[in-house]
Write a structure and sequence with these properties.
By secondary structure, the chain is an alpha/beta fold. Helix content is 48%, strand content 14%. The protein contains 14 helices and eight strands. Helix 3 crosses helix 5. It binds adenosine-5'-diphosphate and magnesium ion (MG).
Length: 346
């Protein structure tokens, strides 16, 4: 697959996966890997959890884009937290040329309406911000200076503001709905500006600009959710990018287990070998070791079958190691360079 957009359009990378598999970590690593020399990548989160600021160890993100990391190859990663209430105020202000009407809207209950009563509208507002960041040109203005539904004046010669946009998206269980902005609005808005905006976002998500990557662990449930997501999102007309197997175990562990798997357990010989390096053994200890080895072989067999299932989805597979030291800016860089080694190109 290609990692960058075509004809001057930045690529929108949507990162999903079962909760807790490493979406935020992988989204940050992908952004750093894509931020090659001189390139600017925008890393976006939508759920007000401040996951990105924790992973990159920077102050909480707000609704202003701020530089959060240097890219692997000298570019820059910018962070943005999209919040539906702020997006609504901005949207109405641009669209209806309202002044700073945020307080008034708050009093009128418009923000509660859009974010809780009509959740479809919430996703359109968030999608609208993402749309705008993908389409914005380096002159700093959005293509139209207004909303995506009125972008007739787009300057096709101006370079985009970002070379890529990476979205730390909702988990697989909710991402289909989140991305189906037009379906969600079906009854709520058949015409009008919100509808036009939803149609524009739908167009972007289903265009060659957008790819959806799915993060998984080599465990039964995450892999099952991954395969379901690849099938369902594909059926919705979205392009699936890579499957990222995160927190994979060390190869040296795997090769040791491979050797163990070829041998019948021989408790007497095991005891003898341990005694020969001055380790005093007991029968319970030898039993425990034999048991542990058998479990490791079982675990390896399960992982092999899960790897096969993941490969069967027919998408490129990227594998990231489990980093025992935990996740911070250095770990993100290490994972970014793993991604680069496996073909992610800025
Ligand atoms: N490759 C990795 N090695 C070690 N720990 C990881 C790795 N990837 C993620 N983690 C840890 O796993 C947890 C979940 O990761 P996170 O990126 O927050 O997942 P999600 O966004 O899917 O909920 C976090 O504690 C994170 O530090
Ligand atoms: Mg997260």
């Amino acid at each position: 697959m290609t990692w960058h957009g075509t004809d001057g359009t930045p690529r929108l990378h949507i990162v999903t996966g079962k909760g807790g598999t490493g979406k935020t970590t992988v989204a940050a690593a992908l952004a750093a890997a894509l931020a090659g020399e001189g390139r600017r990548v925008l890393l976006v989160e939508t759920e007000e959890r401040q996951g990105i600021s924790q992973v990159l160890d920077v102050p909480p993100l707000g609704t202003e884009e701020t530089e959060v990391a240097t890219g692997l190859d000298g570019g820059s990663v910018w962070g943005l937290s999209i919040e539906a209430g702020a997006a609504l105020v901005e949207y109405l202000r641009l669209f209806y040329r309202l002044g700073m009407a945020g307080d008034l809207l708050q009093k009128m209950g418009a923000i509660e309406f859009a974010t809780t009563i009509a959740p479809g509208v919430r996703d359109v507002l968030i999608g609208g911000k993402i749309y705008e960041s993908v389409r914005r040109t380096a002159s700093g203005r959005s293509p139209s200076g207004r909303s995506p539904s009125a972008r007739r004046t787009r300057d096709r010669d101006a370079p985009p503001a970002y070379d890529a946009v990476v979205l730390d998206a909702p988990p697989t269980g909710r991402v289909g709905r989140f991305l189906d902005v037009t379906g969600q609005l079906a009854d709520l808005a058949k015409v009008g500006p919100i509808r036009n905006q939803a149609d524009a976002i739908h167009g972007l998500l289903h265009s060659g600009t957008t790819v959806v990557h799915v993060v998984t662990l080599l465990e039964q449930l995450p892999v099952q959710e991954t395969l379901d997501a690849v099938r369902d999102l594909g059926a919705d007309g979205l392009r699936i990018g890579a499957i990222v197997v995160n927190q994979a175990r060390d190869d040296t562990v795997r090769s040791t287990v491979d050797v163990i798997a070829t041998q019948e357990p021989d408790p007497a010989r095991l005891a003898e070998q341990l005694e020969s390096v001055a380790i005093r053994t007991t029968p319970a200890m030898i039993d425990g070791l034999v048991q542990t080895a058998a479990e490791a072989v079982q675990r390896r067999d399960l992982e092999l079958s899960l790897e096969e299932a993941v490969a069967g989805a027919g998408r490129p597979v990227l594998t990231l190691p489990h980093l025992p030291e935990g996740i911070g800016p250095d770990a993100v860089w290490r994972l970014a360079s793993e991604l680069t080694d496996q073909g992610v190109q800025p």
